[in-house]
Amino acid sequence: MKYETVIGLEVHVELATKSKIFCSCSAHSYGAEPNAHVCPACCGMPGMLPVVNKRVVDYGMKAGMMLNCHINRTTTFDKKSYYYPDLPAAYQTTQWFAPVAVNGLVEIETSKGKKSIRIKQIHMEEDAGKLVHDIREDTTHVDFNRTSVPLIEIVSQPDLSSAEEVEAYLDRLKNLLRYAKVAECEMAHGTMRCDVNLSVRPEGSDKLGVRTEMKNMNSIEAIKRAIEYETARHIDAIEHNTEVLVQETRRWDDIKGKSFAMRSKETAGDYRYFPDPNVMPVVIDDEWFNSIKASLPEFPEVKRARYINEIGLSEYDADQLIKSIAICECFESAYAECGSAKDSANWLLSECMNILNSRQMSYDMLDVDGKALGKLIKLVSEGKVGRANGKKILADMFDNRDIDPETYAKENGYIVSNDTSLIEKVAKEAIASNPRAVNDFKSGKEKAIMALFGACMKQLKGNCDPNTLKEILIAEINKI
Ligand code: ZN
Ligand code: MN
Which numbered ligand comes closest to the C-alpha of 39? Predict the structure, then answer.
């Protein structure tokens, strides 16, 4: 029999706000001492009163709008009870009865074409702390820096059916939320984490099979392997009765390449959700709603169409650029500065990408001043700086956003010289010390001139117009 996999995702995304969701502690504690960013509120002290961070609601709404959701104009917070040492209040403040956004739709692109994934809801909630196990001391430490860091949880309907679709969906979420600048969504940094709900059923059936959940997956490669393994395990159980499938939470061990039962799945009732009496309902009036709506970015597809139809980029270039808002922004200001869309796209998609790749950085980590890039492109296209030296300057611009390309080129000897007498002198020297290349060229091997050309460029430190150099070399050889 043929089977199909049915997958729903719960994606936790850390919002990029400065402070936590219910207090003014910093939400960023990377590199900080344990428990440096804590207060009675985020430590769950009795009697503390949480105050909703408005920016969190702004970002929650924005995320909802990016994913085509309906925004609940009255949104409320609830207590989700569970007891664990990293959760000092013994409940998580989250949203259950009226989440900020519901009924969304996200379109993904796969090898089989476009597919729509329905979003059940997006709710805002607080993160838990971190337990740090110290094997040497045989103790466990708790760090509350992360408690109450704001999260949104994006819950999809079970509309995904393969690892490929899951990857496309996660990429799409990341892309849209980064466009809106509400979250970083970097799995490697823990700012995006994923729970995978999976079941298997005979192809074409509309009944769902027994569902298992793998929690806190934080790499796309691990997610793909886990989906493959779980699918095979479920099919095996159904076909060969190797085991009885039960609804449960499982832990994926990526090193062993296996999943292990953790606990039988809690149902919503186990959490004893109830409205948090300390947090007032948040009422989103028209003015607030409209201001968020007006702050939405240009969507990737709209940008793509504009790049192609209005500024004449190829479909390929447009597709590459819109993958990342960081790239788009750099492109747009470089283009505004230098006036050539094609040159701007080329520099970004070849030279900048090469540097990012060589430093093992992702597209989204591009941090080059677009205006400065535009100036550099102009210097090179006007022949004031050689292309090879332009690339060197660009690499330095990756390390220092304050570099002004023209000043930098002057200070570092990267300005093309128009001094033809110098070029002639260097050309004559190269000809004198490479008689073989000269003879080859004279006997018709035109490519032989490249050896002379390279030697001269090296001597001139790349500060020479290539056509001028070529002309002078040929003229000098013809004199012999
Ligand atoms: Zn706090
Ligand atoms: Mn959650």
Answer: 1
**pLDDT, one tens digit for every residue, the chain (480 residues):** 899 999 999 999 999 999 999 999 999 988 899 999 999 999 999 888 999 999 999 999 999 999 999 999 999 999 999 899 999 999 999 999 999 999 999 999 999 999 999 999 999 999 999 999 988 888 999 999 999 999 999 999 999 999 999 999 999 999 999 999 999 999 998 999 999 999 999 998 889 899 999 998 989 999 999 999 999 999 999 988 888 899 999 999 999 999 998 877 667 778 899 999 999 999 999 999 999 999 999 999 999 999 999 999 999 999 999 999 999 999 999 999 999 999 999 999 999 999 999 999 988 889 999 999 999 999 999 999 999 999 999 999 999 999 999 999 999 999 988 888 889 999 999 999 898 988 898 888 888 889 999 999 998 888 888 888 999 999 988 887
Quote the ligand 2 centre to 220 CA distance (angstroms): 19
Closest-approaching ligand to the CA atom of 153: 2
Closest ligand to residue 127's CA: 2
The CATH architecture assigned to 420-478 reads: Orthogonal Bundle (1.10)
- Ligand nearest to the CA of residue 41, numbered in listed order: 1
Q: How many angstroms is it from 179 CA to the middle of ligand 1?
A: 29
Centre of ligand 2 to C-alpha 12, Å, is 6
CA of 25 to the centre of ligand 1 (A): 4
State which amino acid sits at residue 127.
D
| Residue 90 CA to ligand 2 centre (angstroms) | 15
The DSSP code sequence of 365-404 is G----HHHHHHHHHHHHTTSS-HHHHHHHHHHHHH-TT--
How many angstroms does the Cα of residue 47 sit away from the middle of ligand 2?
A: 24
Cα 128 to ligand 1 centre (Å)? 12
pTM of the model: 0.88
CA of 18 to the centre of ligand 1 (A): 12
Q: Where are the domains of the chain?
A: 3-287, 298-411, 420-478
Q: Name beta bridge partners: 105.
A: 118
φ/ψ region of 146 (left if φ > 0, alpha if ψ in -120 to 50, else beta) reads: alpha
Backbone angles phi, psi at 2, to 5 degrees: -95, 140
d(CA 459, CA 473): 14
